[in-house]
Amino acid sequence: MPTPTAAPVHPPPAAALTIFLSSTIGDYEDYRRAVQDVLLRKAECACFLSEDWIGGYDATLEKCRQRVCQSAGFILLLGHWYGSIPPGREQSITHLEFEWARDRWQGDPFPKMAVLRPKPGTQVDDRLKEEALRILATREREERDRHAARLLKFHAEVDDRQTEWRTIRTFADIHDLREHTLVIGRDWRGHTPMAAAQGLVDAEKGAAEPRLRDDQLGRLGREPQHAALRKVLSGLAAHPDVPAVAVLVNGDRDAGQRAFVTYVQGSLLKNHRPKRKIGRLPPGSSTLPALVAWVAGTLGLAGATGVATPEALADGVVEELKHQPLHFAIDRVAADYPGGVAAFQRDLWQPFWTRLKLLRSQRQVANRLVAIVTDHSGAAGDWHGSVVDAQGTKSADDFSRLIALPRLGPVDETDLYDWFDALEVPDDPPGRRQELMRRALRDEESGELDGTPLHVFERLQGERLWSEGDDA
Fold first, then answer.
1. How far is the C-alpha of 221 from the C-alpha of 158, rounded, in Å?
2. pLDDT averaged per 10 residues, the chain (length 472)
3. Any idea where the domains of the chain sit in the sequence?
4. With a threshold of 0.70, does the pTM exceed it?
5. Contact 454, 256 (CB under 8 A)
6. Pick from 75, 76, 77, 95: nearest CA to 85
7. Cα–Cα distance, 55 to 64 (Å, whole number)
8. CATH superfamily of this structure's domain 17-205
């Protein structure tokens, strides 16, 4: 992982939206600078850091409160160090900032508040833990003894699942953090097609600098996977008794699975219902009945909460298939369901598919269901015969297993040139596409080539690909 470095502070653009960045400083200092940099340079948002202010505790507290209340957005970086507690207070400055922000947006149906926290088990998470321990070692014993309880209480308050305000994302490295920050900043500025259509932002400016959609990014370098899926779906004509197909989209955690699924939903599955984005099992839903109920709810089946078995799910699905083809997409099965992909196929898909095959044949239903399952571990050795290769010859019974598309890999320059051509990105003046390609593949911190899809997506989001008046 490239070590974050302090970037030069760029002046905010005119009419910039001001975002208050809250976090402890001793452990998060470099990351705060990275967030400030991407907000200023790519999201057109002003972001002033408290460490740049001058004054004692009292002045800092009052200035923090004023700036939180005057800001147009609030981002909290949550870590493992609770933070310093000002004299006469029971809470750290970071904790107070969060409470001020919550009060600031109380009652707002769309509060501009977001929380970013390190993904457990990653290098950045380990680094922040080490920094917290280093800071604690310099503190009085009483503070060390009370630190864990204070931190736990703060995290519980931030992660209160009874509240509706929060947008909480995890990041695995500095690239994840920058990407999430860029998306948050641009969304809060209203740089979305819907905002332009509603007249909330200048339509001409929106046309000059359109934000790339997930389906456009998901197309980048994915022709082999898209072609393989197209062949699987068209090949179902040779197996009229197959009622459903489950496709496995797999790759490393930064391979852009969700973007590719969005591309597939808008192209190969555009006639399937319901029109819903890829989703994940909610916390605490790791049992088979909970998984079945989630699928039923995602498909919009009547009485979804009462559907508890794969066979009952098939009973509901066949009724909907009388009217329309169906699909659902479930993300990160390996992380959310015990046993991962193999257990999903064994517990849910096999019995569901077998029952649906019988019902569909009996009732002479023509439509089918397509399921998309993503895996971010790339651990093919753990699939234990529950998956077959999309590019192999398949019998009808093979569809009772998951069909694995070619693994999602890194992006290279040929992928980018093909993508520029498909999206009609102008090459004017000559060499413009080549320069865009180089910028998309170069890591900003190290200067080295990096074709990791999510990192490339982040860099492309900061580029102006089309000239004013061009249709993205």
1. 38
2. 42 66 90 89 80 52 86 94 89 93 83 92 92 89 89 87 62 88 85 44 42 90 97 94 96 92 95 89 86 93 87 96 95 90 96 97 96 86 84 82 95 97 94 95 86 91 72 50
3. 17-205, 223-404, 411-461
4. no
5. yes
6. 95
7. 11
8. Toll/interleukin-1 receptor homology (TIR) domain (3.40.50.10140)
